[in-house]
Amino acid sequence: MANKYVTVTAPVNIATLKYWGKRDRFLNLPTNSSISVTLSQDDLKTTTSVCYSKNFESDALYLNGNEESLSSPRQQSCLKLLRKCRIEKEEQDPSLDKIASLPLHIVSVNNFPTAAGLASSAAGYAAMVYSIAKLYQLDLDRSELSKIARQGSGSACRSLYGGFVAWEMGSLDNGSDSKAVQIAPRAHWPGIRAAILVVSAAKKEVPSTGGMQLTVKTSDLFDYRVKQVVPARYEEMKKAILARDFGVFAELTMKDSNSFHAVCLDSYPPIFYMNDTSKRIVKVITTINEAYGRNVAAYTFDAGPNAVIYYEEKDEDIVLGTLHEFFGSVPGWAKKSGKSFSVPRKFPIEKFDHDVFSKGVSRVILTSVGEGPTLVSESILNPDTGLPKL
Ligand code: DP6
Question: Which atom of ligand 1 is nearest to the CA of 19?
Fold first, then answer.
């Protein structure tokens, strides 16, 4: 039996309606449904090659060139579930190769800083689950695979789809109805852009899992958020996406980021993910929106200080002109080389202390809405050795 391998790439997603809180931490079942935009793999992606061989000693994972442990309960549940599906397939069709029990080598690289608050675990688990499902030739659709990826990291379930994605929280105890679904494909609203302002590429201070457990346990506002705020906002946001209504989409996105950071602050002891740079970015974005009398851009922050700014392509000169004025000296603008940026006429630049407002951002990543996991032909693993290709 030849050593078989497949390679896939998977995207990052950034929530516009945040997942924060688990009702079951082993199955990774959330306390609310959430919504995200999948970002283009041209700019942010995880590439993963997987291979099985009877010659490998055991399962192994190589992340960005280094061997990493594969023993965490989350990694193990994903592997177990995928193997279980393959075993069922082999039992149904005895002519199939018996590969479910053979050791797997997983080689994965990110083209962005791991654990920088840029949802690397989401792209990582989506790539791992999708690649093994392809290697095993499982007949599961993306929603079914999202339930497996969810057990690796909650937000990973949304990276199984491109475009605009919802994670339906579900109500069953076994989690079989807690899955990602596509609200609309990329082509529905291809003009959505995202500018990521990297405020810190360091690892998160309070990892999301621990942070959300503290919030569920101690925040008084949390109950109000999940029962009163999110259910209505979820329906409104889906509607705004389907109607391509950026004004409403932006307002809901900013409000939900605020609400999520409010329950973090209301946790005891409090959790602070946004820092002073994040707060100055909020000021810049709200000032653009005020100056134009409409929501031209929306900010959102995850479990860290990095900002993601959503806007529409038609407003690129306004949004990037403003951001370039403050952060034009950091890397990341090359993509727009040849373009001359200018502060938009209506932006009251005189009200901002340039020295203060231009501090704290280390790079920008300019990207857009993108596609879900994709099979690719070029492997990053040597199938004879199962090791990363140099
Ligand atoms: C703030 O998916 O990283 O980014 O399920 O514990 O792995 P675990 O958490 P994770 O949490 C993401 C939280 C968030 C909001 C979101 O992506 O919806």
Answer: 18
What's the pLDDT at 114?
Answer: 54
80 lies in the same domain as 103: yes
Tokens of 97: 């190769």
Residue 201 pLDDT > 70, yes or no?
no
The pLDDT tens digits of the residues spanning 323-360 come to 999 999 999 999 988 889 999 999 999 999 999 999 99
Task: Measure 209 CA to ligand 1 centroid, in angstroms.
Answer: 7
Same domain, 196 and 170: no
Of 230, 293, 304, 222, the residue nearest 263 (C-alpha): 222
Dist. CA 200 → ligand 1 center (Å): 18
Q: Which residue has the higher pLDDT, 164 or 205?
A: 164
Query: pLDDT-derived band of residue 129, with 50, 70 and 90 as boundaries?
Result: very high
Q: Which protein residue has the closest C-alpha to ligand 1 atom 7? A: 153
Domain residues for the domain of 289 are 192-368
- CA separation for the pair 19, 205 (Å, rounded): 18
Q: Are residues 67 and 202 in the same domain?
A: no
CA distance 246 to 250: 6
Q: What is the CATH number of the domain that holds 228?
A: 3.30.70.890
H-type helices in 189-245, by residue range? Answer: 208-218, 221-224, 230-242
Return contacts of 329-336, CB within 8 angstroms, 24+ apart: 329/358, 330/361, 330/362, 330/363, 330/364, 331/363, 331/364, 332/198, 332/363, 332/364, 332/365, 332/366, 333/364, 333/366, 335/366, 336/366
Does residue 222 form part of some domain?
yes
Please write the tens of the pLDDT for every residue from 153-166: 999 999 999 999 99
Question: What burial class does residue 220 get, using C-beta atoms within 10 Å of its C-beta: 0-12 exposed, 13-18 middle, 19+ buried?
Answer: exposed
Q: Other CB atoms closer than 10 Å to residue 306's CB: what's the count?
A: 27
Measured in angstroms, how far is the CA atom of residue 89 from the centroid of ligand 1?
A: 32
Q: In whole angstroms, give the CA distance from residue 230 to residue 21.
A: 12
Q: Whose CA is nearest to atom 1 of ligand 1?
A: 302
- Number of domains present in the structure of the chain: 2
pLDDT average, residue stretch 1-11: 85
Asked if residue 377 belongs to a domain, the reply is no
Specify the pLDDT at position 115. 42
